[in-house]
Amino acid sequence: MAIIALKCPEIEVAVVDISAPRINAWNSDQLPIYEPGLDDVVKQCRGKNLFFSTEVEKHVCEADIVFVSVNTPTKTQGLGAGKAADLTYWESAARMIADVSKSSKIVVEKSTVPVKTAEAIERILSHNSKGINFQILSNPEFLAEGTAVEDLLKPDRVLIGGRETPEGNKAVKALKDVYAHWVPEDRILCANLWSAELSKLAANAFLAQRISSVNAMSALCEATGADVTEVSHAVGKDTRIGPKFLNASVGFGGSCFQKDILNLVYICECNGLPEVAHYWKQVIIMNDYQKNRFVNRVVSSMFNTVANKKIAILGFAFKKDTGDTRETPAIDVCNGLLGDKAQLSIYDPQVSEAQIQKDLSMQKFDWDHPAHLQPSGPIDLKQVSVVRDAYTATKDAHAVCILTEWDEFKNLDYQKIYDNMQKPAFIFDGRNVIDVAKVRKMGFIVYSIGKQLDEFLKDMPAVA
Ligand code: UDX
After folding, report:
1. Is residue 332 part of a domain?
2. Which of 21, 74, 123, 147 is the most buried (most CB within 10 A)?
3. Which residues carry out catalysis?
4. What is the CATH number of the domain that holds 391?
5. Residue 453: which domain range?
């Protein structure tokens, strides 16, 4: 929304939320999310044509176009639990829009939603509309965190789905005109509603599938002595495949991939397509396997026990350049190590202690609900300490686990770290950021995803 305000000075953008603390933060100097470049954009537009407000109904009533970006968490109970998207928040937003509207509106689905959500929303709106015309559009967001501003300024594509009727076409054109302020016309794709909704799930599934594919290869590389970086480089040189999204890792995280694939799986099952559902489910199974495999490597390498051993965790965010921890692989890895009674000392340049404590005590999928429905406060986990730099985290540690690829982890003084650790000193690099040969020479026992195994680790079982 901030980019729309920046690029369309004649359009007034009001961002509304029922949470006063959240809106206050957006109106302060300390924005509630960390995203490179976003501060500048907000500062340029805030108070001019970009406003943050808790007056939800007033602004919705006044708007011509309403973008709905509410949470669509994975259901934890009832029909489709663990897979289907929970549309409670979407439904109440639609009912509120119908209640307060006095003029025709375009309602845009921004949240990623199951295919055919628009149809349900359309029914809610039209049954409560008092004769007002609502046009539903699907305009899925493809930005990635950490590069959000850049992705929005120069998108690969903007996708707009609408009804194939004269009113639907008119609504699509109205939204297209907004994006046309800065996006070249050939990058604005128009489609029918269902194609647009499905394209978002499909794009995320394809991206996640690439990571699970290279992660599957990483296990085979470790077993055979191949190097996954060399394999993915060779594979990615094929112009039909391309080099992006082929970095082996401890597993993918983030608010979208797992959730969207689970959702896709559920939709396939509901449409009588179990083989298709099974195919996509395997992407998630492989991701869980990769995280488990990492924990098993740590425990089995350290003489089959990490009980009471200090393990430094470098990085907790789901990827670098963000403070976001939603579905971060660090949660599963830390919980795995805690289950084996390890003492964790965690450092991440952007994630707060309160967030880490909360993440390690929350149930799966709880993060996607509003704050008041999440656990009330951080639970103090005795086995976990959160520290402010990598050297404190690693001091007297038995092992270091790198779980996020922050640039600063590439340039740490590993000799100093080694000197201050217990011996034998282990490094488990879940992001392939360190120079394996260099740190091995210092005396570290090194495990790096998909790389040739250290002599010391060769006879240890990969799967406990
Ligand atoms: C993703 C999609 O990229 C974006 O288009 C969509 O709108 C939202 O979901 P995001 O979750 O912000 O964006 O992050 P992304 O950069 O896609 O990374 C997702 C996860 O995959 C991260 O944990 C990342 O570390 C991991 N990853 C990515 C790998 O493990 N290897 C890779 O090669 C690339």
Report:
1. yes
2. 74
3. 256
4. 3.40.50.720
5. 225-457
